[in-house]
Amino acid sequence: MALDVAGVDILRANRGPLVMEVNASPGLEGIEKTTGIDIAGKMIRWIERHATTEYCLKTGG
Question: Among 4, 20, 50, 57, which is most buried by a count of CB atoms within 10 Å?
Answer without folding.
Answer: 50
